[in-house]
Give the backbone structure.
Amino acid sequence: EVQLVESGGGLVQPGGSLRLSCAASGFTFGSYDMSWVRQAPGKGPEWVSAINSGGGSTYYADSVKGRFAISRDNAKNTLYLQMNSLKPEDTAVYYCALTNGSRGQGTQVTVSS
């Protein structure tokens, strides 16, 4: 059974940083591309970033490019999202996801002064 468990969210002031983690189990993590998706209150899901299975290729939504960095540690079955220069509009629940749509329970990120 696929399990994805996100952590690392919280309340941060504008301009601050957070590092999200996603612990994966139940599948061969290192064989799959992974993504981060977020959903703000009252809005639909928004794709944020993706990384290929080996970690050599990364992709970002224009809204986070230059501020967020996706990475993975295949030895630890863990996906990361380093978020810098956070803005109030980054407030959302962040999910790690497989391309088949499987995702975790999410972690709340709130950017507010």
